[in-house]
Specification:
31% strand; 19% helix; alpha+beta; elongated
C-alpha cells in the first residue's frame, strides 16, 4: 500500500517596503544624532603640578596631565618622556600648561650662556646645521707678522641652540647660529670672530 506525502511550502511574512525604508531612515537618523552629540576627542597635555622656577631640570613630579580638546601650542603627552631633564626659560605657576617656547634642552644647564655667531657657509658645514647638532670649534690665527697661520681646536661638542640661513642678497651664503657656551668659550669665540677665522666641524652622533 503506497503512502502519499504532501509537502507545503513555508511562507515567510512579507515586509512592507515602506516599513523597511522607514526603519533604514530611523537608523540613519539615530546614527547622525550619535555623531553630532558625541563629545570631541580630548588629548593629554602636560601641566605644572607646582610653581616651577627657570633653569631647573624637570622631573616627573613637576608635571601632571590634563585632557583638553585642542593641544595647539601646548606640550602633548601623559609623561615627560624625552623632556625629562629639560628646564624652563621662565617660571610658570601651578596649573599652567607647558609650552615648547619655554622649554630648553639640558645642554643649556651645562653651558647656560648663548653666543651669536655668523659664518660663511664654507666655514659652517655648508650650512647643513640644525638645532641639536654638536660641533667642534676651530680657530685660525696668524702666527706673527709674515708667519703662517695656526689652527687650533678650542672647544669640542658645542651644542647648537639655533641655526638659520643668513637671508638673501649679500648674506645669502652665511649661516646665523646660536651656540651654548660657558664664559671662557664665549670670550674665545668672540675674539676669534673679530680677529681670526672660526670653523665648525659637525660631530657625528
Amino acid at each position: 500500500m503506497a503512502l502519499g506525502i504532501r509537502t507545503h511550502a513555508l511562507s515567510l511574512p512579507s515586509i512592507d517596503r515602506k516599513r523597511m525604508i522607514g526603519l533604514v531612515l530611523a537608523a540613519v537618523a539615530a546614527l547622525l544624532v550619535l555623531l553630532l552629540t558625541r563629545p570631541p576627542d580630548r588629548v593629554p597635555v602636560l601641566i605644572a603640578s607646582a610653581d616651577l622656577p627657570p633653569g631647573q631640570a624637570l622631573t616627573a613630579d613637576d608635571v601632571t596631565v590634563r585632557y583638553v580638546e585642542s593641544s595647539e601650542g601646548l606640550v602633548e603627552g601623559s609623561a615627560l618622556g624625552a623632556l625629562a631633564s629639560w628646564s624652563l626659560r621662565a617660571p610658570i605657576a601651578e596649573g599652567e600648561p607647558l609650552v615648547p617656547s619655554l622649554l630648553q634642552p639640558p645642554e643649556l644647564l651645562e653651558a647656560p650662556n648663548v653666543i651669536a655667531l655668523s659664518l660663511d657657509e664654507s666655514h659652517a658645514v655648508l650650512g647643513r646645521l640644525v638645532p641639536g647638532d654638536r660641533v667642534d670649534v676651530y680657530v685660525t690665527t696668524a702666527d706673527g707678522v709674515g708667519e703662517g697661520s695656526v689652527t687650533q681646536l678650542v672647544a669640542t661638542g658645542v651644542y647648537i641652540v639655533e641655526a638659520r640661513p643668513g637671508g638673501e642678497g649679500l648674506n645669502a651664503d652665511r649661516v646665523n647660529l646660536l651656540l651654548a657656551v660657558d664664559e671662557e668659550l664665549a670670550q674665545t669665540i668672540a675674539g676669534a670672530a673679530r680677529s681670526g677665522a672660526v670653523d665648525l666641524v659637525r660631530v657625528a652622533p
